[in-house]
Amino acid sequence: MTEPTLDPRLEADTLPVAELPLCQVRLMNDSRFPWLVLIPRRPAVSEVFELSEADQAQLWKEATALGRTMKEALEGDKLNLATLGNVVAQLHLHVIIRNHDDDAWPAPVWGHGQARPYAPDAQAAMRDQVLAQIAGLALD
């Protein structure tokens, strides 16, 4: 499998966390929201329908399993899953845990205020939390 080049905007706005069978998992560098980005490791793909049926199923499996376990672990009120791609064409899926008292509730997180980058220790703690949740998933 050829590793696609990561879009520069995704690289600038997110932090690497882990590799799943299909997707690279990255943490959005905005401490206001528990926000992961799943990026399928497939070159030149901008839409879900451009993935094979098997990859579509795997993407959904990874997103919903990770979203469910993160929502439970972080006691979230809502799980948001979205592929937009209006600014970054490279296919990526947002996995965002929402809470009734978060900075944007009930509106979407996009375009709401300024991102607050993680402090190094908070970034490490969130990364460890995500890795702990991934360790318990059966994704193959």
TrEMBL record:
<dbReference type="InterPro" id="IPR011146">
    <property type="entry name" value="HIT-like"/>
</dbReference>
<dbReference type="Pfam" id="PF01230">
    <property type="entry name" value="HIT"/>
</dbReference>
<protein>
    <submittedName>
        <fullName>HIT domain-containing protein</fullName>
    </submittedName>
</protein>
<feature type="domain" description="HIT">
    <location>
        <begin position="36"/>
        <end position="105"/>
    </location>
</feature>
<dbReference type="InterPro" id="IPR036265">
    <property type="entry name" value="HIT-like_sf"/>
</dbReference>
<dbReference type="InterPro" id="IPR026026">
    <property type="entry name" value="HIT_Hint"/>
</dbReference>
